[in-house]
Amino acid sequence: MAKASGEAKLRAEADGCTRCPQLVASRSQVVFASGSIDAELMFVGEAPGATEDREGVPFVGASGRLLDDLLAGIGISRDEVYIANVLKCRPPDNRDPRADEIANCFEYLQRQVEIVEPTVVVTLGNFASKLLRNDDTAISTIRGRPEICQIGARTVWLLPVFHPAAALYRRPNLELLRDDFKLLPLLVSRGAPDQKQAASGSREAAGDAEASARPDSEDDPPQLDLF
C-alpha cells in the first residue's frame, strides 16, 4: 500500500510538472511509467516517442514489441517489470534530450527507483546508461557488464544494454541484446547488493558479477518474431 500510494503521488506530481517549458508546450501528456511497482527488474530508456506520447505508455510500437519478445525469451512478461524513461515528456521532433531537461527530470527517476526498490536496473541505450553511471563511456563498450550502482537511496545491480531501437534492423545488435538479457534472471537471483555499500569501488565488483552471471551455454535462442 505504501508503495502504491507513493508511486501514485509521484505520478500525479510528474503529470503536473512544468519544469521544462518547451516540453510542456509540445507534449500530449506525461509518460510516467508502466508495470509492477513490486518489480525486481526495472528498465530505463531515453524519452517517449510519438506513439508513447499519444498513448501515455513507455515502450510501445516496434521497440516495445521487441522488448516484450526479449522478456518472453527469459520467461518474464511486461507486467512483471517496471519501465520508465529518463525524460517523462517527448522532446519535439524526437530530438535528443537536453542537459537541462535531463537534470530537471532526474529527481523523478531517482524517486521511482527508491519507491520500486528493484534488484536490477537495465539501462537501455546511451542516454540512460551515461546518466545512471555518471560516466560518458559509450554503450558499445560497456553493454552486458553488470556493476553495482547507487541511484538515489537505492543500491542496485545496473546492466547497460543496447536500446531495442538499435537492434530492430541490425541483427548483430539483436544477438547481443539476447545474450545480455540472459544475464537478468541470474542477476535477480543474486539479490540486491548490500544497501550500505557505497557506489565508490562498485566497478571492482563488476568483473566478478559479469563472470558469475554469464550463462555457460552459448546456444542461440529461437529467432524472434519482431513484427
Name some characteristics of this structure.
alpha/beta, 13% strand, single chain, Uracil-DNA Glycosylase, subunit E, 10 helices, 227 residues, globular, disordered C terminus, 6-stranded mixed sheet
Rg over C-alpha atoms, rounded to the nearest angstrom: 17 Å
Tell me the total number of β-strands: 6
Determine and state the CATH class. Answer: Alpha Beta
Mean pLDDT over all positions: 89
- Under the CATH scheme, the architecture is 3-Layer(aba) Sandwich
**SSE order in H/E notation?**
HHEEHHEHEHHEEHHH
- State the distance separating the first and last CA atoms: 38 Å
For this structure, the CATH topology is: Uracil-DNA Glycosylase, subunit E
List low-pLDDT spans.
198-205, 216-227
**How is the main sheet built?**
6 strands, mixed
Shape: globular
How much of the residues is beta strand, in percent?
5-15%
State the fourth-level CATH superfamily.
Uracil-DNA glycosylase-like domain
Number of domains: 1
Please count the helical segments. 10
Percent helix, as a range, is 40-55%
Structure in words:
The chain has helices at residues 2-15, 21-26, 50-55, 61-72, 99-116, 126-133, 139-142, 171-181, 183-190, 204-213, and strands at 34-35, 41-45, 82-85, 120-124, 147-151, 154-161. It has ten helices and six strands, in the order ααββααβαβααββααα. By secondary structure, the chain is an alpha/beta fold. Helix content is 43%, strand content 13%. The protein has a six-stranded mixed sheet.
